[in-house]
Amino acid sequence: MKRERLEWLADNPFYTKRFSHYVGRRCRQSTIQDIAKELHLDWGTVKTLEKQYMRAQLAKAGRPGPKAIGIDEISIRKGHTYRIVVSDLNRRRPIWFGGEDRSEASMAQFYDWLGEKKSRGIRLAVMDMWKPFRKVTLARAPRAAILFDKFHIMRHLGEALDKVRKSEYARLSGKDRRYIKGQKYTLLSSRENLTLEGRQALRTLLTANKRLNTAYLLKESFGQLWDYEREGWARKFFENWRASLKWQRLKPYERFAEMIDRHWDGIAAYCKPENKVSLGFVEGLNNKIRVIQRRAYGLRDQEYLRLKILTCMLPTI
């Protein structure tokens, strides 16, 4: 018996391709459970139809040949279980999700998938300061300039500021502690993201504690480093910033400055005009992935998570 393939049918013969695409589009904004309830379908059926839709999206998008990539890792469950996400920064979409951890072997899987020819075509790789990512990229994409992600660097500086906050809380006692207690978010957030009440609390905190005020101002000023278009001026700014730490007794900041000095080449690379890319895209993608993970909470289907991440920036079909 010969079975005829009908183009208008989905992989599930009980539903048309048009209907499966409708379900897929609806699932971009809602959970599987909500769509199953709305359309009176089984939960597993909705998930299967959505996966078919996402595979069709990827097939239509085609195989990438990126010139600038962003490399990041996401935690998929508790216990330091990571997967690597690689994005095409010019087309502003994720192109690969995989690996078993953050190791060199896992990073090499991306370049194996991309192929030697396309790997050599990469001109810029944006990443955090994780050594295995850098080492494999230098070996497999030798023409790529390495650029360390601004948001990861500023996160390290935020952690240094939080350590200063904790040390000040431990140093003080009694009523002097009341300005610091419960103000972690206020101190680490950007001023423009704070409410009026938050800004008032920040002003009170910085007025009450001179060391925290100094640490906060140093953190806010450090972001200027990415405004320079010449490496010499950027280096001069950094040296002046590091010199201002003298006599401040801010050990976490001194360790941060040493880290920046060790990784200077990957920071100074941003000064070159050919390396000017939108560094906010990777951070925005991370926020989108966190939303996807919350919606897919409890699902252990990693193929489903992979498809959701790879298609989250693709247009609907």
Report on the structure:
There is one protein chain. By secondary structure, the chain is of the alpha/beta class. It has three domains: about 15-60; about 70-150 and about 280-310, Ribonuclease H-like superfamily/Ribonuclease H (Nucleotidyltransferase, domain 5); about 150-265. Helix content is about 55%, strand content about 10%. It contains 15 helices and five strands. A five-stranded mixed beta sheet has the order 3-2-1-4-5, with helices on both faces. Strand 4, helix 6 (about 130-140) and strand 5 (about 145-150) form a beta-alpha-beta unit. Helix 7 (about 150-170) runs antiparallel to helix 12. The longest helix has 22 residues, at about 150-170. It is globular.
What are the main properties of this structure?
3 domains; 15 helices; single chain; five-stranded mixed β-sheet; Nucleotidyltransferase, domain 5; alpha/beta; 317 residues
Output the structural class.
alpha/beta
Strand content: 5-15%
What spatial order of strands do you see in the largest sheet? 3-2-1-4-5
For the termini, the CA-CA separation is 34 Å
Q: What's the story with the biggest beta sheet?
A: 5 strands, mixed
Name of the CATH architecture of the largest domain: 2-Layer Sandwich
How many structural domains are formed by the residues? 3
Order of helices and strands: HHHEEEHHEHEHHHHHHHHH
Mean pLDDT: 87
Rg value: 24 Å
Uncertain spans: none
Annotation, overall tally of beta strands: 5
Task: Give me the CATH superfamily of the largest domain.
Answer: Ribonuclease H-like superfamily/Ribonuclease H
Helix content: 40-55%
Q: Identify the overall geometry.
A: globular
Count of helical regions: 15
- Enter the CATH topology name of the largest domain: Nucleotidyltransferase, domain 5
